[in-house]
Amino acid sequence: MFKFIDDFIIYIATQKRFSEHTIVSYRNDLKATATFILNRYEVEELEKITFFHIRSYIVDLMKNGMSAKSVNRKISSLRSFYKYLIKKSHVDVNPMLKVVAPKIPKRLPDYVSKTDIATLFDTLSFGDTYSEARDFIVLLLLYNTGMRKSELIGLTDGSIDNAQKRISVIGKGNKERIIPVSNDLLIKIRKYIQIRNDAFGDIKSNLLLTDKGKPMYPKLVYNIVNRILVRMATNTKKSPHILRHTFATHMANNGAELNTIKELLGHASLAATQVYTHNSIEKLKDVYSRSHPKAES
């Protein structure tokens, strides 16, 4: 098998022109597989290697704690290798056809706890300068609406509908989305606009501006959120998107229907929103384990 691995590596290097990193990974993955099968089953001849041997190797990797993502990479290497072997007529049967890759668990989105959010907004205020007022309203808008950073930057004064108590945003695919908001948030937005107009005049275009009165840009939004969350929140990530996750998670934990959260976030399909049900379930488990007298039984 080792000879054919060397031939395959030459093939992907010279004909497929794979990157050096990919070539090294493939070589290591394939030689590790061959070494395992040789040591465990004393099988070296390519034609004698079967699905049983491949499966045994994969099971051994997982028993030894390798992540599903890393195992899948090795499976990918083996699939490419056997595709090459079939093409070159070195084998008649492809044992990889029966191999099922392990599922990679979805990472639950990070979010700011209710306690940290309460502390955050108890501490923040409009302050004495335009910059402080803008930073405050940026945090308020992101958490209260769940909008994306790009949607926040695209807001204009006309996006705010005080009469209907809602904000319109332009999301992905240039689609307009309506987000209902509280009267308290609208009052704070109006106060912010007054502070902005006092600083730069009655602009009536971009809602949010830089310290010099220019339109906001993505890096500035990130810097504002990161700087404030570093001081206030205990979670590891400190990006604007964390506040979008926080909005959705808190909605789910408070009983909001998944379809409602989907519409508010502007997700194209429900599948993208379902991750927040996991956070909600974890919250229920936590409450149960702390509250129910038989939880430890």
Plain-language structure description:
The protein has helices at 2-14, 20-41, 51-63, 68-87, 114-123, 130-145, 149-153, 183-200, 218-232, 240-253, 258-265, 275-291, and strands at 160-161, 166-170, 176-180. The protein has 297 residues and is mostly helical. It is elongated, with a radius of gyration of 27 Å. It has two domains: 2-98, Orthogonal Bundle (DNA polymerase, domain 1); 114-291, Orthogonal Bundle (hpI Integrase, Chain A), CATH 1.10.443. The mean pLDDT is 89. The chain has a three-stranded antiparallel beta sheet, with no helix packed on it. It starts with a helix and ends in a 6-residue tail after the last helix. Helix content is 58%, strand content 4%.
Defining traits:
DNA polymerase, domain 1, three-stranded antiparallel β-sheet, 58% helix, 2 domains
What general outline do the C-alpha atoms trace? elongated
Counting DSSP H or I runs of 4 or more residues, the number of helices is: 12
- Based on CA atoms alone, the radius of gyration comes out at 27 Å
CATH topology value of the largest domain: hpI Integrase, Chain A
Average pLDDT: 89
Low-confidence stretches: none
Proportion of helical residues = 55-70%
Instruction: Kindly provide the name of the CATH class of the largest domain.
Output: Mainly Alpha
CATH architecture of the largest domain: Orthogonal Bundle
- Domains counted in the coordinates: how many? 2
- Major sheet details: 3 strands, antiparallel
What is the H-and-E element order?
HHHHHHHEEEHHHHH
Task: Give the DSSP E fraction (strand runs of 2 or more residues).
Answer: under 5%
- Helix/strand structural class: mainly alpha
N- to C-terminal distance: 54 Å
CATH superfamily of the largest domain: Intergrase catalytic core
Strand tally is 3
Write out the strand line-up for the largest beta sheet, numbering strands in chain order.
1-2-3
